[in-house]
Amino acid sequence: MTQAVRGVNHVTLAVTDLDRSVAFYRDLLGFRLRALWPDGAYLEAGPLWLCLARGASVTERGDYTHLAFDVAEPDFPALAKKVSAAARLWRDNRSEGASLYFLDPDGHRLELHVGTLDSRLAAYRDGGRVQVFD
User: Fold this and answer.
1) What is the per-residue pLDDT for 119?
2) 110 bridge partner residues
3) What percent of the chain stands above pLDDT 70?
4) Distance from C-alpha of 53 to C-alpha of 124, rounded to nearest angstrom
5) What does the pLDDT look like over 38-95, one tens digit per residue?
6) 113 secondary structure, DSSP code
């Protein structure tokens, strides 16, 4: 039997101000707060389990590393407007679907995205510059 990774179990982000970060993910992005303790929190959005862990500092990355959150197409315009008004943007959208690239309070690079892997691969097939495997 082949053993393989089945998907993402959870994501943990270091944060410097737990209350501020919980409010950002819960109140701005709509995550559901599931647990809270002095140095951390668990939040949930669909199948995503997000852990916020208090740290003394957070190192900002200067590359393209980021987390993309799935958003339903009808919900995207209102959520993107709300997030744009509250968070700093770090990149313009260049993807095949609607996307908004923004920073959380600790500078973690995030994205709201409408689309699937299949829609991304279809765009790559049409563009002809990327080798796509079925």
Assistant:
1) 85
2) 67, 102
3) 99
4) 37
5) 999 999 999 999 999 999 888 888 899 999 999 999 999 999 999 999 999 999 998 8
6) E
Residues with Cβ within 8 Å of residue 99, at least 6 apart in sequence:
68, 93, 111, 112, 113, 114
d(CA 91, CA 73): 20
Which pLDDT score, from 0 to 100, does residue 105 have?
A: 96
On whether the CB atoms of residues 99 and 80 are closer than 8 A, the answer is: no
Domains by residue range for the chain, with CATH: 8-54 (3.10.180.10), 65-128 (3.10.180.10)
Q: Are strands 67-70 and 109-113 parallel, antiparallel or unpaired?
A: parallel
Return the residue matching tokens 């916020």.
52
Please tell me the predicted confidence (pLDDT) of residue 24. 98
Is 111 an active-site residue?
yes
What are the backbone angles phi and psi of residue 88, rounded to the nearest 5°? -80, 135
The pair of structure tokens assigned to 134 is 């079925």
47 contacts: CB under 8 Å, gap ≥ 6: 7
Closest CA to 51 of 27, 28, 34: 34
